[in-house]
């Protein structure tokens, strides 16, 4: 399979790395273009198996699946630019929300999807939010999903729900990292242990908790019940957390929604904004 990438910024290069890491070289060829030759040269220096194209049009002509990984303000211009080169058999996937699905379907002759990735795909993990165009058959949707499964867990969402869903899946790693960092730093201040030790303990705790939730069938309440014995130390700690956390995530979601509207990108924003 030949996959093309128009744009090799932070998210485009991350997806390229993830696909190369997850797929045997005999099954995958990647062609990429970038309006900055320096960025493209940096990418190919790290991944010499990536083929380069001079233009978006050439990328499309040499690919079966095309990922559009440009800035929101550039998306429509690039779509118009490559329009004459897209054929019915192409799969065209935008990774930001600058253009709605129905707008792309009205313009393009090919199969159309939107995929909002996450930084967690670096670890071949986490969620890709997926929206498929109305013209795609079940088999075609499954084909795209099967490629995304190599680097993530694809979850189908409604386009109107993308704002809040991307807060959880794409912005969430940064929000969670802030909380874990504060937990570690508090242990340094209050317990006198080294920052390296605190960081290691918190990271491994987070890794293990994630496995309980995703691999061992635990729900949030199961972990709380098993660890927070009534009257015990953990239960007392949770009493401290409750008043501090009450409503804080509601306010977080209100703030991110307001920020998106302020920038004129309803109902969501591109994933790069979440992950910087």
From TrEMBL:
What pathway does the UniProt record associate with this protein? Amino-acid biosynthesis; L-proline biosynthesis; L-proline from L-glutamate 5-semialdehyde: step 1/1
Class in the EC hierarchy, top level: oxidoreductase
What Enzyme Commission number does this protein have?
Answer: 1.5.1.2
**Cross-referenced InterPro entries:** 6-PGluconate_DH-like_C_sf (IPR008927), NAD(P)-bd_dom_sf (IPR036291), P5C_Rdtase_cat_N (IPR028939), P5CR_dimer (IPR029036), Pyrroline-COOH_reductase (IPR000304)
Q: Pfam families annotated for this entry?
A: F420_oxidored, P5CR_dimer
Query: Where is it chiefly localized?
Result: cytoplasm
Q: Where in the cell is it found?
A: Cytoplasm
List residues of the Pyrroline-5-carboxylate reductase dimerisation domain: 160-261
Role summary: Catalyzes the reduction of 1-pyrroline-5-carboxylate (PCA) to L-proline.
Similarity-based family: Belongs to the pyrroline-5-carboxylate reductase family.
HAMAP family per the UniProt record, alphabetical: P5C_reductase (MF_01925)
Write down what this protein is called. Pyrroline-5-carboxylate reductase
| Natural source organism | Tumebacillus lipolyticus
Q: Name the encoding gene, please.
A: comER
């Amino acid at each position: 399979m030949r996959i093309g990438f128009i744009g090799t910024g932070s998210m485009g290069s991350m997806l390229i790395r993830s696909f190369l890491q997850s797929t045997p070289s005999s099954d995958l060829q990647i062609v990429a273009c970038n309006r900055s030759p320096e960025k493209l040269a940096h990418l190919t220096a790290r991944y010499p198996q990536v083929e380069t194209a001079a233009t978006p049009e050439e990328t499309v002509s040499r690919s079966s699946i095309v990922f559009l990984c440009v800035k929101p303000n550039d998306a429509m211009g690039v779509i118009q630019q490559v329009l004459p080169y897209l054929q019915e058999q192409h799969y065209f996937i935008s990774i930001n929300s600058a253009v709605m699905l129905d707008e792309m379907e009205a313009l393009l002759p090919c199969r159309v999807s939107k995929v909002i990735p996450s930084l967690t795909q670096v670890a071949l993990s986490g969620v890709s939010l997926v929206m498929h165009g109305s013209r795609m058959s079940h088999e075609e949707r499954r084909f795209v999903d099967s490629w995304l499964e190599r680097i993530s867990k694809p979850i189908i969402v409604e386009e109107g729900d993308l704002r809040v869903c991307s807060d959880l899946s794409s912005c969430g790693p940064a929000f969670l990292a802030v909380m874990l960092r504060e937990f570690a730093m508090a242990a340094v201040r209050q317990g006198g242990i080294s920052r390296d030790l605190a960081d290691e303990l918190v990271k491994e705790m987070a890794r293990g908790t994630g496995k309980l939730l995703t691999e061992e069938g635990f729900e949030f309440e199961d972990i709380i019940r098993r660890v927070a014995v009534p009257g015990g130390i953990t239960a007392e700690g949770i009493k401290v957390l409750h008043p501090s956390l009450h409503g804080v995530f509601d306010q977080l979601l209100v703030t991110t929604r307001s920020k998106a509207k302020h920038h004129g990108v309803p109902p969501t924003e591109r994933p790069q904004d979440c992950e910087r």
